[in-house]
Amino acid sequence: MIKKLFQKIHSGFFPRTDSKIPEVINRVMADELTFLDHKPLLELHEAVRECEKAGIEGILIEAGCAAGGSAIVMASAKSKGRSLHLHDVFGMIPEPSEKDGPDVHERYQVIRSGQAEGTETKPYYGYRPDLLEEVKASFRRYGLHPEEHKISLVPGLFADTINGTEKVALAHLDGDWYESVMVCLERIGPRLSSGGRLIIDDYDAWSGCRRAVDDYLREREGLFFIERRSRLHLIRF
């Protein structure tokens, strides 16, 4: 049964390079609500759509929503009745640990010094005075009123807010550093439904994220199918 479900989910559902880009993706990019480009946003959109088509049980999670662009893409792809939980500090990113490499610590010093670049017309999201309200306003502007579409914005550290026992259909993890990513893997991984997926945003970007994922998988051989797209995908058998 699990094998049949897996085959259904992985029968080439990810978009070809000539796939039509949903308008919401063009909009969030034009509105400078994300640093992601078309390809990962399209894959994220289609992954959520496939959860709906395949009837994968569980909520959706985004851990690290920044200005909200990828979260809006997820919300636009899900059914109105499926819950989406968005976790973020909605402010300055937490400090990395000794388990993160020099690349991470150098990047954090740039952010902490106030020198991190934002988008073309907007400052880096971690420097904005009320990012939480800004993200809520963006959802409303897109016609995705949180209270009507079962969207929960949860401020705080992942270690303090990612809890619960609900099944998870899909989680987009954008935690950057080792500890943040590991908390997500340990708290969300066991809750994934069969065929559910973790999309790891920073595996190829930051050493801490990569080390966290590698450490997590080393102890869980045979639990996930690993798929390489524009981002790393872990699918629960």
Describe this structure as you would to a colleague.
- The chain is an alpha/beta fold.
- Helix content is 38%, strand content 17%.
- The chain has 9 helices and 7 strands.
- The protein has a 7-stranded mixed beta sheet with strand order 3-2-1-4-5-7-6, sandwiched between helices.
- Helix 8 (178-188) links the parallel strand 4 (168-173) and strand 5.
- Helix 8 (178-188) packs parallel to helix 9.
- Helical content band: 25-40%
Q: In CATH, what is the class?
A: Alpha Beta
Number of strands: 7
By CATH, the superfamily comes out as Vaccinia Virus protein VP39
Count of separate DSSP helical elements: 9
Estimated radius of gyration: 17 Å
Biggest sheet descriptor: 7 strands, mixed
Question: Main sheet: which strands, in order across?
Answer: 3-2-1-4-5-7-6
Taken from the alpha-carbon principal axes, the silhouette is: globular
Looking at the overall shape, the CATH architecture is 3-Layer(aba) Sandwich
The amount of beta strand, in percent, is 15-25%
- The computed structural class is alpha/beta
The CATH topology name reads: Rossmann fold
Low-confidence stretches: 1-13
Order of helices and strands: HHHEHEHHEHEHEHEE
What separation lies between the terminal Cα atoms?
11 Å
Average pLDDT reading = 92
How many structural units, i.e. domains?
Answer: 1
